Amino acid sequence: MPTREQSKTQQAQRDQDLAQLAGGLDALENAPGGRRRRFDITGVLAPVAVVVGLILLWQVACWAHLKPTYIVPTPSSVASNLWGLITHGTAWEAIWVSVHRGLIGFLASIVIGTVLGALVSQVALLRKGFRPLLSAMQSLPSVAWVPFALVIFQGGPALIYAVVLLGSVPSIANGLIGGVDQTPPLLREAGTVLGAGRFELMRSVLLPAALPTYLTGLKQGWSFAWRSLMAAELVATSAQLGTGLGGLLSNGSQDSDMPTVLSAIILILLVGVVVELAVFDPLERTVLRRRGLTSSGL
Amino acid sequence: MTAVTRQPGAQADERRTPAVRVHGLRKAFGSAREPVLALDGLDLDVAAGEFVTVLGASGCGKSTLLRLLAGLDRPTSGEVDVQGGQPALMFQESALMPWLTAEGNLQLALRLAGVPRQERAGRCTELLNAVRLGNVASRRVHELSGGQRQRVALARSLAQGSQVLLMDEPFAALDAITRDLLHQELLDVWRADQLSIVFVTHNVREAVLLGQRIVLLSSRPGRVLRTWDTRDVPQDDVAGLTDEITHALREEIGRHAHA
C-alpha cells in the first residue's frame, strides 16, 4: 500500500512527464516562425516595364504617322499637357472635386450597403425579395441611371451621389451577404453552443467570418463607385457641378483636345491605382494573413 | 410528447438528479412520408460527475444524440433534460474562430457566458494553463497544431462553466501520442472540475480507457444495445473488456449485412 507521501510524489512525477510530453509535441509541431517575406523588387519593376513598353509602342506608332497627331498625340505632348494641368493646379482641383465626391458617396454606400446586407442576410423574407434584385442591380451599369437622375435631381450634385450609390451599394451588400452565407456551419453551431443569441451570433461570429468576402465587396464597391462617378461627371456637366476628372475629360472631348482627354484618362487611372494600392491591398493582406489564408505567393 | 427543459442553476439535490436525462428519444430525418429514423426510443441517464462514453458504428445516431443534447436540433419526440443550462460541446474539428487568437477564443466564450470583463483575463490564463498552453495565448488558430487546437477547444468548453461536457469524437483526427496526452488532460480536467461527460467515439479502446460507463448503440435506428461499467472490471482485465465490446460492436455491424 503506497503511503500518501509516495502517491503525491507519483502524481507530481506524472504531471511532470505529461508537461514534458506536451512541451515536446508543441516544440516539434510548431512551424518555425519569422516567415516575413522579403520585399520583391520585380513586383514593382514588371508593371513599370509594361507601361514603358506601351509608351514606346505608342511613340513608334506616332513616328510611323499611322494617324495625324491631332487624333493620336505624341506621348511627349500628352506629358507636357499633363505637366501643365498639374502645375496650373487644374489637375489637383479636378482630383479634389472627384475624389471628395467619390469618398462621400462611397462612405454612404458602405453604411447603406452594410445595413442592407446585414438585414437581407438575416431576414428570410427580405432575402427572398432583395437577393435577386441586388444581383440584377450589380450587373446594370449605373451610368444607365444618369439620364433619369438628371431629370429627377435637375442637374444638382444629388444626381451624382445617386448614381454612385446605385453603382456601389449592391456590390457591398452582396459582399456581406455572400460572406455570411459562406460562414462554415460549424462556426455558427460553435457560437450557438457558446450561448450566442441571434444578435450576438451576427456580431461575434457571422460578421467577423464574413470579413474577407465583405472586403472584396468593398473593393468592388469602390471601383463601381469610381466608375459611376466618372460616367456621371462625363455625361452631366453644369456650372453648379464644378469640374471633376470626368468634367475635364468631357471638356477635352468637346474641344477635340486629345492631349487633355488622354491626360484626364491617365489621372482617372492613377487615382484608381493609388486607392487600390494604398487602401484595399494592405487591408486585404492584413485580414488574410491574420487568418492564415495567404499563400506564399501572395 | 416533446419536452426540452434546461434547468438553470445548481439544485440542492443535484447529486440525486442525473446531470443528463434522456427518455424515449426519437429523431427522424427526411420527409414525413418516408422518415429515416436516426434515433428511436433511446434512454440514457448520466449521473452528476459521471464519464459516459457512447460507442457505435456509423449511422447509429451518435452525433445526432449530442446535437439534441446540445440543443442544436429538436427531437421528433421524447424527453431531453440537461441540468445546469446550455451544455458545452466539443466537435471533431476545433471549431475555433479563425480570426481570433487562442486567448481571444477563450475571451469570447467567457463573454458569452456572462463572465464580467475584469475577471476574464485571469480566468483565461487559468484555462490555458489547465491545458498547458499558457505559452501560445497570443497565437492565431492557424498557427496552432491540430493537438493544440483541440486543447484550446477543450479550454473553451471549460470556459462556458457548464457542468455537462458533450464531446463528439474530439480526438479522432489526432495522432496516437497526442491523443494519449489529451486523454490524460481530459481525465485531469474531469476530476478537477467534477464534470459530467458524454463522450462519443467509434474507438473501442478509447471508450474503455476513458469511460466509467460504456454505452453501445445499435445502428439505424439508434437505441441503447448494451451497457458496461468499467468500475466493475478489475484493472488487469481491461483488455478482456475491450475484446468483448469489440465483438459486440462487430456483431451489430454484421447484422446489417443481411438487412
Give helix % range of chain A: over 70%
Overall shape of chain A: it is: flat
| Tally of individual helices of chain A | 11
**Into how many domains do the coordinates of chain A divide?**
1
Number of helices in the DSSP assignment of chain B: 7
Write a structural description.
Chain A is 78% helix and 0% strand. With 298 residues, chain A is an all-alpha fold. In chain A, α4 (90-122) packs across α7. Chain A has one domain (77-290): MetI-like fold, CATH 1.10.3720. Chain A is built from eleven helices and no strands. The N and C termini of chain A lie far apart (64 Å). Chain A is flat, with a radius of gyration of 28 Å. With 259 residues, chain B is an alpha/beta fold. Chain B folds into two domains: 30-87 and 162-251, Rossmann fold (3-Layer(aba) Sandwich); 95-161, no CATH class. Chain B contains seven helices and ten strands. Chain B has helices at residues 62-69, 102-112, 117-130, 146-159, 176-193, 204-210, 238-255, and strands at 2-7, 20-29, 36-46, 51-55, 77-83, 88-90, 164-168, 196-201, 213-217, 224-229. Chain B has a six-stranded mixed beta sheet, with helices on both faces. In chain B, strands 1-5-2-3 form a four-stranded mixed beta sheet, with helices on one face. In chain B, α2 packs parallel to α4 (146-159) and α4 packs parallel to α5.
